[in-house]
Write a structure and sequence with these properties.
255 residues, alpha+beta, six-stranded mixed β-sheet, 6 helices, 25% helix, globular, DNA-binding, ExoIII-like, metal-binding, Endo/exonuclease/phosphatase, Endo/exonu/phosph_ase_sf
Length: 255
DNA sequence: ATGGCGGTTTTAAACCGA
């Protein structure tokens, strides 16, 4: 079983790349963020033709999430029932006995922005809802764009980023709170090369200079952690023409 | 300090992302 997450920064623009990537990486489950599509514009037929079922929750211009799966999905939940939110940032589904939560955690913009307390409240509500979900689903995977680099080794230049949004202590504390509820960062289960990131700024040759952050994650409960045999960032599509600024993250689960 | 880039919309300039 292979599962993946990818912030595509507009599925309208990136659909050909998603289909190409799935041909080369026929994962069982793919969580997408920033589809930026209303549900009536979602490319269901193209994704079905690629062999995937799909559930989605979108809106105009911003946000939007989807789960693509080779296996049937049930118990779909859109957004956090404990957190009324006009922004479409969560979709959850049960697939083959595993609960998948696909999340596009708010960016926060800056510590001074009103979007920053929104991000922290959003994370707090996510934690509360996940406690309920975990009580029902011992096998749970939380995949998505967390917009949090958990540690300094997930940041290309920790000194330059110190205290900024995406690395600030309250955000990292929220990440650790997710870990404390039994969710493990699958990437850190394994020995990894240094300077592995999942997002690079489009500007100033960010990707070529590897000025990145690791902000896309796959967190797993104990039972899934024990089945996890690999977790990698796939930089290949970041090198394609007109790429998303994020790269996919893939975890492998033994049967 | 600002703007870089790329996507979006109200198809031009403004917004948002990270």
């Amino acid at each position: 079983m292979k599962i993946a997450t990818w912030n595509v920064n507009s599925l309208k623009v990136r659909l050909p790349q998603v289909l190409k990537w799935l041909e080369e990486n026929p994962v069982d489950v793919l969580c997408l963020q920033e589809t930026k599509l209303t549900d009536d514009k979602f490319p269901v037929a193209e994704i079905a033709a690629a062999g995937y079922m799909v559930e989605f929750s979108g809106q105009k211009t911003y946000n939007g999430v989807a789960i693509l799966s080779r296996h049937p999905m049930s118990d779909i939940v859109k957004n956090n029932p404990l957190f009324p939110d006009e922004q479409q940032r969560i979709i959850a589904a049960t697939i083959e006995g595993v609960r998948y939560v696909c999340a596009y955690i708010p960016n926060g913009q800056s510590l001074e922005s009103e979007k920053y307390p929104y991000k922290l409240s959003w994370l707090s509500a996510l934690h509360a809802w996940l406690q309920q979900e975990l009580a029902q689903h011992p096998r749970l995977a939380l995949l998505g764009d967390y917009n949090i680099a958990p540690e300094d080794r997930d940041v290309h230049d920790p000194a330059a980023w110190q205290g900024q949004v995406l690395v600030s202590e309250p955000e990292r504390e929220a990440f650790r709170k997710l870990q404390a509820m039994g969710l493990t960062d699958s990437f850190r289960l394994f020995e990894q090369p240094e300077k592995i990131y999942s997002w690079w700024d489009y500007r100033q040759m960010g990707f070529r200079l590897n000025r990145g952050l690791r902000i896309d994650h796959i967190l797993l409960t104990q039972e899934l952690k024990e089945r996890c045999t690999a977790c990698v960032v796939d930089k290949v599509p970041r090198k394609w023409e007109q790429p998303s600024d994020h790269a996919p993250v893939i975890a492998t689960l033994a049967d």
